[in-house]
Amino acid sequence: MSEKVRTMFADIADDYDRINSVLSFGVHHAWRKKAVLESGAHEGDHVLDCATGTGDLAIEFKKTVGESGYVMGTDFCAPMIEPAPGKAEKEGLEIDFEVADAMNLPYEDDKFDIASIAFGIRNVDDPVVALKDMARVVKPGGRVVVLEFGQPKGLMKFPYEMYSQHIMPAIGGWLSGNREAYTYLPRTSAEFPAGDNFLALMDQSEAFKERRAIKLTGGIAYVYVGVVQ
């Protein structure tokens, strides 16, 4: 993965959770809950959460899979993952966390029931390679779940573009001291394939026998679910 992206996330890691909640008005928590729901996760499942960051999605999965289940959260940026164990412990949850690259996962084939990634697939050098490797470590019939930003259309298009391109960089830059990071994040969201275009990337991976897209908040975000062949 790009060293520039790794350095950028390391620089904003300490303020990431606080700024994320401010900029999304807390909606990102509901999106993560929806991703877990759409994944079909149930008690006893083993889950790998890639690009886990500070562990929010891993924590949501652990609440669902329970004590008999297992969750591993990974991220390619060590400073981003540092708060995650403490957050899980505060919730009374046992989750393993370690540094790993979503394009080159250090796990055996068919190890997990579900592999997930939230707001991270657009930051990898090759999303198709990441999708393939996530599918590789999931059992046949298991699911790969992607939560990612989209580009809303219709009445929401203009206000969202104004907010993401102008207000978000200003607020994020002010709170973090790194305006470049909060310019990069909405810019990559606007440029990254969404909806049917992301489903086409999933098809390119040739890893899924079924795939679907679920639009969230008018297309500001999507959940994608692929059933592994």
Model description:
- The chain is of the alpha/beta class.
- The protein has one domain: Vaccinia Virus protein VP39 (Rossmann fold, 3-Layer(aba) Sandwich).
- It is 46% helix and 22% strand.
- It is built from 10 helices and 7 strands.
- The protein has helices at residues 3-12, 16-24, 27-39, 56-65, 78-81, 84-90, 127-136, 157-176, 179-191, 196-205; strands spanning 46-50, 70-75, 96-99, 112-118, 138-149, 208-216, 221-228.
- It has a 7-stranded mixed β-sheet with strand order 3-2-1-4-5-7-6, sandwiched between helices.
- Strand 6 (208-216) and strand 7 (221-228) form a beta hairpin.
- Helix 3 crosses helix 4 (56-65), helix 7 (127-136) crosses helix 10 (196-205) and helix 8 runs antiparallel to helix 9 (179-191).
- The radius of gyration is 16 Å and the shape is globular.
- The two termini are 26 Å apart.
- The mean pLDDT is 94.
